[in-house]
Design brief:
Helices cover 73% and strands 0% of the residues. It has two domains: 151 residues, no CATH class; 70 residues, no CATH class. It is mostly helical and 240 residues long. α4 runs antiparallel to α6 and α4 crosses α9. The radius of gyration is 18 Å and the shape is globular.
């Protein structure tokens, strides 16, 4: 699964059509808007997940329980818009960045930036609900809960991954989680002994989650560069 797969599967496969009806667009127009914004979500999620605080925020959103209805129930559009606002803040950091992304997606899709901006939090919540649904359907929901619990503990994932403030271990944040979060979850000793099966499960869960952050749509070089320029200006994200 990737982000585009998730949106196409949302609400029993009718998510795109339901969004089209909500915003007075044709399904083709709605697809164009979604496929223009998905690369921003993909890039933003991948960037956010490289930071322990950012990854912890994503895990908290996934396990919060507020996004499942967005993925499964078209009547939850109003709640999705509210819940999705927090997701946008988590991924993009500021309303100004979200506005710039909506303008960029508007130029690519031909849909007005106002509609794109109104659609973005709903799509964000649908994506969170779909990511959780996909992880749970693969038997990995418990792993999300364990990692979210570590993120919400004193010091968060940052303390668990890098308690001494030393350089990040080989493999980046995800690699560090395997060797350090386990110590917090299982009382020390890393992935040795009885914790080894849990280490393998965490590895599978993290790899699966990160692989689903791929966009799954074709992105022109111009669009990707525009999104990168916008996100590169994100220097002081306001993540919660």
């Amino acid at each position: 699964m990737n982000l585009n797969d998730i949106i196409q599967a949302a609400q029993g496969g009718q998510g795109v059509n339901n969004l089209a009806s909500q915003f007075g667009l044709t399904p083709e127009q709605t697809q164009a808007a979604i496929q223009a914004m998905i690369p921003a979500f993909s890039t933003g999620l991948q960037r956010t997940a490289q930071d322990p605080t950012g990854l912890g925020g994503i895990l908290s959103q996934l396990t919060s329980g507020v996004h499942q209805g967005s993925f499964t129930d078209p009547s939850q559009a109003g709640a999705a818009a509210g819940a999705g606002g927090g997701v946008l803040g988590q991924i993009f950091g500021s309303p100004q960045i979200t506005t710039q992304i909506s303008q960029q997606a508007s130029q690519i899709s031909g849909i007005s930036p106002q509609i794109v901006q109104q659609m973005m939090p709903i799509v964000a919540s649908m994506l969170m609900g779909g990511l959780f649904h996909s992880m749970t359907s693969q038997g990995l929901g418990g792993i999300l809960g364990q990692l979210a619990g570590a993120a919400n503990s004193p010091g968060g994932l940052g303390s668990a991954v890098n308690p001494s403030g030393a350089a990040q271990p080989a493999g980046g944040l995800f690699g560090g989680l395997l060797s350090n979060v386990l110590g917090g979850l299982f009382g020390g000793g890393g992935a040795s002994g009885a914790a080894a099966p849990q280490s393998a499960a965490l590895q599978a869960g993290l790899n699966t989650l990160s692989s689903m952050f791929q966009a799954g749509v074709q992105v022109s070089q111009t669009h990707q560069q525009g999104l990168s320029d916008i996100l590169n200006s994100l220097t002081t994200p306001n993540r919660s």
